[in-house]
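Moderator note: this is an archived Q&A kept for reference. The question asked for a predicted structure of one protein chain; the sequence and the answer are reproduced below.
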Amino acid sequence: MSKYHLLLAMLYALRFSSRYSPLATTMHHASIRTANIHRAIAFYEQLGFTVCERFTTGYTLACWMEGLGGRIELIQIPEPHPAPDAFNDEHYVGYYHLSFDITEVTPELPSWLTGLKERFLEAQKTQQELYQPLKVLLEPTQQQIGDRIYEVAFIADTDGLPLEFIRVLAN
């Protein structure tokens, strides 16, 4: 992933608003390069994203998907190289993860994650070429950030990129 796309992903995760920017701009999308766009689309559809636009970027397939309060761009990369392990390499610098607040989506993160695992297993039964079992990087745990307590969990997408799911538990 280029530094430009890494920066876009991080900025998107911050969800800039007018209090951060005098121009009151919003993030348009975070771009994710993938080895197989069809697998990536299927993966993100299981998370609740839908394809809203398909296009090409020069010589390769791409799409925008919307869901969970945001928009991502998937770009298929010919002859891909594996991405660094941003989750487990404590010395890695650059893109770390996208984070999705699912406080309004589910009353508890563990049951939501269990349901997601089951959806991936069911999908794999009928479309093995598109689905793999869900890779959980961090099971749900509580974390205090500032004056709030959150439930957090991490999963990996089809290319191993970390995705965080977070719920506010208490102020």
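Archived answer notes: The mean pLDDT is 88.
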